[in-house]
Amino acid sequence: MNTMSARKWLTYSAFVSPAVLFFAIIIVGPFCKAVLFSFQDWNGISADIKWVGWGNFERLMKDMDYIKSFTFTMKFVIVGTILTNLVGFALALVLNMALKTRNMLRTVFFMPHVIGSLIIGFIWQFIITQVFPNIAAFTGWDLFAKNWLSLPNYAFLSLVLVTVWHYSGYLMVIYLAALQGIPKDLLEAAEIDGATAGKRLWHIIVPLVRPAVTVCLFLAISHGFKVFDMNFALTKGGPFGTTESLALHIYMDAFSKNEYTYASAKAVVFFLILASVTLVQVFTMKRKEVEM
User: Fold this and answer.
1) How far apart are CA 157 and CA 6, in angstroms?
2) What CA–CA distances, in Å, run from 203 to 98, 111, 154, 198, 292?
């Protein structure tokens, strides 16, 4: 290795090493520890740690609360991913037009994503419990007269509504960048050839923004699976555990019931599910992408 190559290697190492070190300490280390805990029995307090092998995973298959949380999470991921991407893409289409206020509107729609999810949850809890009754009294609409957070279907709707409001602005930015990368002369040529706005959207715009669709679907799916703080602040898993996400369920097992090793087994299974779903999604979408 010559002097120049050695100098470059040292320079790269100096910049990359801190990030790799922090990643190993904060992510890789705890993950490996969680995998080890998943085969043990420990309450997080005593010094006695027992090896149970596959016992935690066998118990997991019969845990109806975990299955209930998994069912809710899958339902939330599917509905939230579809709506968030549709709203984000629609906003990007509108704000890609020659509007005088488009820069201001882009900022307005992106602003909710800047606010922390925990704060968003508390804000919307106040809106649903305090503001909605006033709207019902003023308008007479029965929809706002109900306590959304105490009814299972409405509590689910509340989580989806807040998630779309909070996250669609972020996806809008990604879609907007993809739309601005489409050559204008291509759209103009299609318009001259007689293609309607709908045909230009379906046959030109949608195929060319599929790389952005792949990214946004990946982000929305991973965000939906990992939802915790908003779920904790808005519904706390209620009513009666009907809106308890997998992340919140694992948290409650670990820090409320002191079942650290059993919660670790659930977290490992959760990781495998999330990794499998995202890998299949990315692989499937990548095959359908169109390059210019």
Assistant:
1) 58
2) 22, 32, 38, 8, 14
Lookup: tokens for 83: 């709506």
> What are the extents of the domains in the chain?
58-287
Rg (CA), the chain: 24
Give strand pairing partners of 51.
40
Q: pTM here?
A: 0.86
Residue 223's contacts (CB-CB under 8 Å, 6 or more residues apart) are 80, 167
Euclidean distance between CA atoms 31 and 192, whole angstroms: 57
What is the tens place of the pLDDT at every residue in 6-20? 788 888 888 888 888
Q: For 58-287, give the CATH class.
A: mainly alpha
* 262: nearest Cα among 29, 37, 27: 37
